[in-house]
Amino acid sequence: MLGCAVYGHDTWTDRVVIWNALAEGWGLSAEERHIVERQQGTCCAGCGRQPVASALVVEIP
Ligand SMILES: [Zn+2]
């Protein structure tokens, strides 16, 4: 994965966003849980932005 496009940070961290009872309540498979954790839990260690937020940054000339 590329680094943070906002500030150039190069370290990503993973937060837990789906706890066990929630995964069971939603009936998530291990693969589905992994996808949600990856999509919603990964953020820049430097500024906290998620990869999608970082990728949407557009430079204005
Ligand atoms: Zn960052």
Brief characterization of the structure:
The chain is of the alpha+beta class and 61 residues long. 39% of the residues lie in helices and 10% in strands.
The parts where pLDDT drops under 50 for at least 5 residues are: none
Supply the helix-strand structural class. alpha+beta
Total DSSP helices: 3
Say which molecules are bound, naming each kind only once. zinc ion
- Quote the average pLDDT: 88
Principal-axes geometry comes out as elongated
Distance between the termini: 26 Å
Q: Could you describe the 3D structure shown?
A:
By secondary structure, the protein is α+β, with helices and mostly antiparallel strands. It has one domain (12-55). Helix content is 39%, strand content 10%. It is built from 3 helices and 2 strands. The protein has helices spanning 20-26, 30-41, 51-55, and strands at residues 12-14, 42-44. A two-stranded antiparallel sheet has the order 1-2. It is elongated and about 40 Å long. The chain starts with 11 loop residues before the first strand and ends in a 6-residue tail after the last helix. The mean pLDDT is 88. The chain binds zinc ion. Residues 4, 6-7, 9, 44, 46-47, 49 line the site of zinc ion. Zinc ion binds at residues 4, 6-7, 9, 44, 46-47, 49.
